[in-house]
């Protein structure tokens, strides 16, 4: 998916400012990087109609070397149907998942997310895809994000909504509900069906 130039430039300027503020020693250089961060927030404000002060506060909350965030999503299957959860935030459906946590491996993260959001226990069968959010998902996001998609085998538990999900259900590939496109797309679900049916497929990597 093509992103608007204001978002691409604003995100990169934000990263340059964050990295510069992490490593610079000279106070004048620090002032310059702080100004770059302000310009980044202003640019994003003009393109997104979001309050610039709010964006600047988000930017100031990040420190250290700027790298993409990592998300995980798990695909569990039953009788040829895929497990999805209904997100409370937008009322639409997605693969169970969320941000990867510190001190957990990617497989530990997706197992935890599957259980927390759906009530099911699982084990990871394979990594199916590593996708760049900006190329695959909508709506646009301020952060750079890599999403890891796993095919999982359901081993126990039962359907149970959570604080973030209101329903848990299984769907056929040709009967998908309205999807939360910032989290999961129909193309990604189809890809996971193919990987579940053909475990020997190579990992799909952006």
Task: List descriptors.
206 residues, Nucleoside Triphosphate Pyrophosphohydrolase, eight-stranded mixed β-sheet
Fold and architecture overview:
It contains 6 helices and 8 strands, in the order αααββββαβαββαβ. α2 crosses α3. A hairpin with a 2-residue loop joins β1 and β2. It has 2 domains: 56 residues; 137 residues, Nucleoside Triphosphate Pyrophosphohydrolase (Alpha-Beta Complex), CATH 3.90.79.10. The chain is elongated, with a radius of gyration of 19 Å. The two termini are 12 Å apart. Helices cover 38% and strands 28% of the residues. Strands 1, 2, 3, 4, 5, 6, 7 and 8 form an 8-stranded mixed β-sheet that branches. By secondary structure, it is an alpha+beta fold. The relative contact order is 0.17. The mean pLDDT is 94.
Summarize the structure.
The protein has 206 residues and is α+β, with helices and mostly antiparallel strands. It contains six helices and eight strands; from the N terminus they run H-H-H-E-E-E-E-H-E-H-E-E-H-E.
Helical fraction: 25-40%
| CATH third-level topology of the largest domain | Nucleoside Triphosphate Pyrophosphohydrolase
Unreliable sequence segments: none
| SSE class | alpha+beta
Secondary structure blueprint with pairings:
Elements: H1 5-23, H2 27-48, H3 52-60, E1 69-78, E2 81-87, E3 93-94, E4 97-99, H4 106-118, E5 120-132, H5 133-136, E6 145-157, E7 165-171, H6 186-197, E8 204-205
Parallel strand pairs: 1-6, 5-8
Antiparallel strand pairs: 1-2, 1-4, 2-3, 2-7, 5-6
